[in-house]
Sequence to fold (615 residues):
Amino acid sequence: MTSKLQEINHDVDLCVVGGGIGGLLTAIAAARRGAKVALMHDRPVLGGNASSEIRMWICGAGTRVRNLQETGIMEEIALDNMARNPTRNWSLWDALLYEKARFEPNIDLILNCACSEAEVLRGVGNDAATILSVTGFQSTTQQRHTVRAKIFADCSGDSILAPLTGASFRVGREAKDEFGEEWGLDKADRRTMGSSLLIQARETDHKVDFSPPPWAYDFPDDEALNHKPHECLLKPHTNFYWIELGGEADTIADAESLRDELLKIAFGVLDHMKNHGDHGADNWELEWVGFLPGKRESRRYVGDYTLAQNDVENGGRHFEDIVAYGGWQIDNHLPGGFWMKSEGGAHLQKRRLSEPYAIPYRCLYSRDIENLMFAGRNISATHIAFASARVMGTIGIMGQAVGTAAALAVEKGVAPRGIYEDKALLRELQRRLMDDDCFLPGLKREVSPLARAATLSADYGDASDLLNGVDRRIWGRDNGYFGKTNCAIAYAFDKPTFVNGFRLVCDSDLDRENFDGHPDLLTIPMPLFRGLGYGNTSFTFPRTMLKSFRVETKGADGEWTTAFETTSNNQRLVRGAIGRECLGIRLVPLATWGSVLKDNTYGSATVHIFAFEPV
Ligand SMILES: Cc1cc2nc3c(=O)[nH]c(=O)nc-3n(C[C@H](O)[C@H](O)[C@H](O)COP(=O)(O)OP(=O)(O)OC[C@H]3O[C@@H](n4cnc5c(N)ncnc54)[C@H](O)[C@@H]3O)c2cc1C
Fold:
């Protein structure tokens, strides 16, 4: 008897494969810009390495360089997490990411579904190949889902659509002379960074015994552990990243055997800390071991441009097609991983960057498959450039760029490359990104025509910087407006003017230190270790954020009436609908998160915002 699986078909504008941070933000950005999106993801939870299945912290440019924290959807998620998940619970974090995709009307979320087939139309002559559809198997329903789309974004980390479509990709480390990289090798090889699994533990007020499984490795002394820095429990900003293997193997084909080895090491490390010498671990109990190793590196696509070491160091290069930026250090893990013998036990090659660098749009679409884009650790970059661009804050803003570009390409009926080739479209992509609160170093956001045509005044102080097109404190300039609660900022029109809405950018303190006060700033610091003295602290919401405000419009009779009001804002970028003709519009700030008193009334406070405009 032959059995047949049920076939489910989806017809969309954009199909995103893989729901890590790159894929999730690609899908959300495209959907919010009007594209119909399918997001096919092979796990039950979203977020990839940042999900509760792997538990990596989201870092980015702002972790190392002040005020460079990623904004746009990344910051929206970070602020929602701070407001709604104060105790930093991993399940609430999963639920937040799930909510962003599942309840977005334009996203068809297909979870537990692994993409394994693609239908490709091979080009004739000079015509490039085009993907027609992809198909995945959904393990929970035993259904096959086929998604037809105009554009495909491979955000699977492992570039699953490369072997399925024949798109060009790279694996391993480049030779010095190929891109002129200082840290390139004399001879290229296929070695990569390895995969790691992490451990979560918590401190109790009593001694907790631990017996390792019989198959765990035995590490009787620090020498056997190769002096890996295992004082993690006492240092909440570190983790067991060094339980890492696979750089000398194939992180895709060997993933199952690598997992087996990593588990033997992980339980052996725990045994060492609990039962061999004093590691301050007596009262600690194991809470969780990841059974799904996080992958750092596998296939990287080849786009129209390949980002290299010289493009990320010393402030990088000027790219007219900048759509995202990086700033995390070059953080290269050497392939030997856990078993590598080295001084101090580390297997890292690191260099801090003092300036952000531009990520050009040309790194985000395939050079040979006409409708294939990518965001994540698989973008078009050399091994060394990837070693910086691979952190999830950076990947998130790449995702927002790819999603926004895909929606624009569909709207204009062009292929992804068409946006680069048509400079007006490229400029429109950058305009939309900045309007959605993405920072593009070196470019200024266009202030709305309504704001430019009106007269701006403030009851208190000077508000002129609200019109300078830079929405963060950066490079020695505040770029914001300092006002006071109950003192309005107003635009006056010289004739009755229809106002659709407003755009407001609050100060969410992009320089906030939120990992239990540790100076290594982390964008979304979910804890791995909960000590009795640390790791249990709640997020404190940025005191600078505007919490309560009114937007009013001025009628022909000269009276101000409320058009929008909130007492619970927790977002940096706020857009509100107005939809009326008026002679003026004003913002009346009422309270910041720092000025809410214990009895839920408000104290007077300084207000700090970066933009307020009628649109
Ligand atoms: C141990 C470790 C520590 C790290 N530390 C940090 C850190 O501290 N901070 C930081 O910011 N970054 C860190 N990184 C780097 C960062 O986590 C990765 O570079 C990043 O997660 C890559 O994001 P992504 O969206 O491209 O891929 P991923 O996070 O790998 O997400 C891709 C998703 O696609 C899914 N997928 C794969 N194949 C398919 C398919 N065929 N069909 C459907 N879905 C598929 C996968 O299940 C996965 O969830 C670390 C990485 C590792 C491994």
